[in-house]
Amino acid sequence: MMKVLIIGNGVAGTFAAQYIRNQDDNVQIEIYSQENYPYYTRIKLPELISERVTIDDIIVFQEEWYKNKKIKTHLNKKIKSIHPKQKQAIIEDEDEPVAYDKLIIATGSMPNIPPIKNAVEMVGKGVFTLRNIDNALDIRDYIKNNNVKKAVIIGGGLLGLELARQIKNCNLDTTVVEFFPRLLPRQLDIDCGGMLKEVIENMGINVELDAATEEIIVNGSVKGIKIKDGREIEADIVLIQAGIRATIDLAKDIKLETNRGIIVNQFLETSAEDIYAVGDCIEYKNQTWGIIPACLEQSKIVAASVLEKKKIEYKGTVPKNTLKIVGIDLTSVGIFDPSDQDLVGAGWEILKNIDNKGRCYKKIVIKDNNLKGAILFGEKDAIPYVNKNIEKPISEAELRKAINLYKWVCGGCGSEYDDAKMEILFKYLPADWKCPNCKGPKSGFEKKV
User: Fold this and answer.
1) Which letter does DSSP use for residue 23 in this model?
2) What is the CATH number for 157?
3) Which domain holds residue 370?
4) 3-state class of 120 per DSSP?
5) In terms of domains, do 206 and 141 share one?
6) DSSP output for 183-223
7) pTM across the whole model
8) In the list 61, 151, 232, 239, which could disulfide-bond 65, CB 3.0-4.6 Å?
9) What are the residue ranges in the chain where pLDDT is below 50?
10) What is the pLDDT of residues 213-229, one digit of tens each?
11) Number of domains in the chain
12) Are residues 79 and 27 in the same domain?
């Protein structure tokens, strides 16, 4: 009977185990995790700090699920080293090695701490990162036990903003500090970043942009941060959410091919026979992902590879990101700014509408009639259409209907008014508005689908 050993019980490791079991009832599956909890959703970790949820609320698969799936889990167990030739793993503080036939490394990622003076030294003593349940509990307890009134979050990405919202829910004076000139620099263009900043500030969260943190100010305890341009912001706690780094130490130790992540081929195989890697820890074609959709996609492929049913090849994952803050509907998919990503040449088309009053922003990126990307802010209805059709040929009429941006044609002279290229939607133009070309009335225009 084949034995598959999985290191890591995050989304990639757990779903790899599930997909293996779904296809083969006889394989022996064992998962080893350093954490003390079965698989849980990291998305809700900030809510654990504000006590909007409990640990039990965020655990996805309880003990019964693993029992039913015949998946054996070993929690609170650290794999210290791997011996690929002997096909064995060594567990910390245990004498007996664990044998395997196939090994899946799903060690995930760890928070990145930028080179900020005093940051590393003060971790756990007023400076924190958030990646797991224990981190969330440590942050919650520190706030409660140290009379914390002011918090700074370094990093205005998805995790930083979601964390800021929950820290604000703890009734703290909250400031987000972002190195780039806009929030969510990996998901938004400048226009939408500006709109999001206004919405976040209206929630009572301060936002500082173009701000490179130079130093954590310490005087016995954390007192604040100093930014390179001289600005100082007071804080009793500093939370660093400045991206992630793939966890590749084990892979490096056994001389697997690594770069920023563990290098894999299209079947998620590493440079060593019978060793696979999946999730945040991998690198494929010079790219790493660090998003849940990629973990889920990869876990199906790694399961097939382990079972020697190599039918699907990994082709990379289109980035899909949603901001999970109550009251904000924001989704960013695929390529949202071709010029920003050095993608030049003919064939690119952008449909865009900014409604500052209604706090709604729609941007669709098309190339050669294929849907390449989108930003939808304050717009929920179009999300299913965009997710379903990304990287596929689309009909312009269907797209315009999905995003509610139409062309209007003047019955008098044939002039077009395009919602996707104008500041104001046609329906919001005043009743006495006239065609700029023939001066015909607004009522003389027809919707062209």
Assistant:
1) H
2) 3.50.50.60
3) 329-396
4) coil
5) yes
6) SSTTT--HHHHHHHHHHHHHTT-EEE-S--EEEEEEESEEE
7) 0.90
8) 61
9) none
10) 999 999 999 999 999 99
11) 4
12) yes
